[in-house]
Amino acid sequence: MALITKKIKGTEDVLPKQSYRWQFIENIMREESRAYGFKELRTPVFEHTELFARGVGQTTDVVQKEMYTFDTKGGESVTLRPEGTAGAARAMLEHSLDNEGLPVKASYFVSCYRYEKPQAGRLREFHQFGIEEFGTQSPVADAEIICLAQSVLDRLGLDQIHLELNSIGCPECRAKYNQALRDYFSQYKDKLCGTCLTRLEKNPMRLLDCKSPEDQAIAKDAPVITDYLCEDCENHFTEVKKYLDAAGIAYNVNPKIVRGLDYYTKTVFEFITDCIGAQGTVCGGGRYDGLIEELGGKHTPSLGFAMGLERLLMVMDAQGIEIPNNDSCALYIATMGDEAKIKAFELLRRVRESGLTAETDVVGRGLRAQMKYADKIGAKYSMVLGDNEIAENKAKVKNMDSGEQTELALDESFAEKFSVLQLADASGFQI
Ligand code: ATP
Ligand code: MG
Which residues have CB under 8 Å from 38's CB, separation 6+? Predict the structure, then answer.
């Protein structure tokens, strides 16, 4: 019985008094992605397992260890999305969005599911904001999405987040690089962790992403991809950097950034902070020119990024950024008597129509308990309606902070006058 009132390990509730924090960051993300021409895409929370196996990549930790996969009653294998790109690519192909003109630009908010060891900044259900852009190989697009990510972080008021940038080349440069990595890591075969031994065979670049400190120490002196880029990839990378320089975006070229997913090509990047401990990557992204073909579409060079919302909120807390809260009640109307209740009902509707939050007693409390409640919910103004106020058709609105009272007529002008009053108070002007 106790179990049903406990959430599943690695999941979190966002409580009503906390949700303004999420809405604040989501609104900024919506506004910024709109400014860059991205439109929201919503895809299902589960997809055919095969989509992720191919789209994320068989050799990744996500596919090998972290997916929530189950068989449906119909005997199909489905998986809760571990990330947003594969579903977006599937939707793009299924609806032939590329026929409507390229590039296809989509933004999304998704919940993601990964069976990982829960710890600070690492959950089993977490949330991402992301964007995907299908159908462009231009380095301008790479620089542009990095600018978009940077604008979001700036508008959230964050600092001490650095951009780590790399190019991991195309399959051609990677073949040579993988061989160099195999040669290098083979010397340390007896020291590598079990997972890395398999990586050495299947996808040696993954070794650079291993979280074990011993393997990281070995990886420190491994060959770097930037020495193996073909001319085309090298030029592409140079162009990306040129545009970032033009936009005044600081970056650090870091050949160790290879990203966790298999489908990346050329540009990869992460925004990392040191202020929330080990899980400091708040945004990861890059190019995945081979993905759409991998999923059965035509060659469609594409790119995108995803930000972890929980981690961003952690950084905002760590940096002491105050998030504006517009959720509190602007006006609480306390009532005495049936006539007052009906009058309050009518006034409240008008105040709410003017866009403000207004509440009254819906429990049947006495006056004193109503005022206590108004205090508890942090109402900015309160007003008491009783027989006298109804008879005189006016009442005093009280500023709960200053105690100052203002008399307002209880007619059609009420909502507008109240609105002006609270605006004037908020901005410090006298009316
Ligand atoms: P990490 O190296 O931290 O495991 P990742 O490379 O697996 O990250 P991505 O697949 O690139 O992460 O996902 C993009 C972003 O989503 C990450 O930068 C991070 O902010 C967030 N994220 C990833 N996994 C988790 C998780 N388990 N819990 C919370 N946030 C996560
Ligand atoms: Mg991971």
Answer: 105, 106, 107, 131, 133, 148
Closest residue (by CA) to atom 21 of ligand 1? Answer: 308
The pTM of the full predicted model, rounded to 2 decimals, is: 0.93
From ligand 2's centre to the CA of 24, what distance in Å?
Answer: 26
Closest C-alpha to 226, from 166, 176, 182, 180 = 166
Pocket-testing residue among 117, 126, 145, ligand 1, by greatest number of atoms within 8 A of Cβ: 126
Report the mean per-residue pLDDT for the chain.
95
Query: Structure tokens of 210?
Result: 């291993």
pLDDT in tens, 133-152: 999 999 999 999 999 999 99
What would the pLDDT profile of 341-375 be if each residue is shown by its tens digit? Answer: 999 999 999 999 999 999 999 999 999 999 999 99
The per-residue pLDDT for 311 is: 98
- What are the Cα distances from residue 254, in Å, to 134, 241, 259, 264, 304? 25, 13, 12, 16, 19
- The pick from 281, 288, 313, 314 for probing ligand 1's pocket by mutation, whose C-beta has the most ligand atoms within 8 angstroms, reads 281
For residues 292 and 277, what is the distance between their CA atoms, to the nearest angstrom? 35
Nearest residue CA, atom 9 of ligand 1?
284
Taking the C-alpha atoms of residue 165 and residue 171, their distance in angstroms, rounded to an integer, is: 19
269-281 in b/e form (b: 16+ CB < 10 A) is bbbbbeebeebbb
- Residue 282 Cβ contacting ligand 1 at under 6 Å: yes
Confidence of residue 1 (pLDDT cuts 50, 70, 90): low
pLDDT tens per residue, range 287-327: 999 999 999 999 999 999 999 999 999 999 999 999 999 88
Q: Which of 262, 274, 354 is nearest to 59 (CA)?
A: 262
**Structural domains in the chain plus CATH codes:** 11-170+230-318 (3.30.930.10), 331-424 (3.40.50.800)
CB within 8 A of 401, min separation 6: which ones? 380
Q: By alpha-carbon position, which residue is closest to atom 5 of ligand 1?
A: 260
Indicate if ligand 1 lies below 6 Å from the C-beta of 335. Answer: no
- Nearest ligand to the CA of 12 is 1
The minimum-distance atom of ligand 1 relative to the CA of 83 is 10
The mean per-residue pLDDT over the stretch 10-36 comes to 98
Q: Which of 112, 312, 315 to mutate to test the pocket of ligand 1 (most atoms within 8 A of CB)?
A: 112
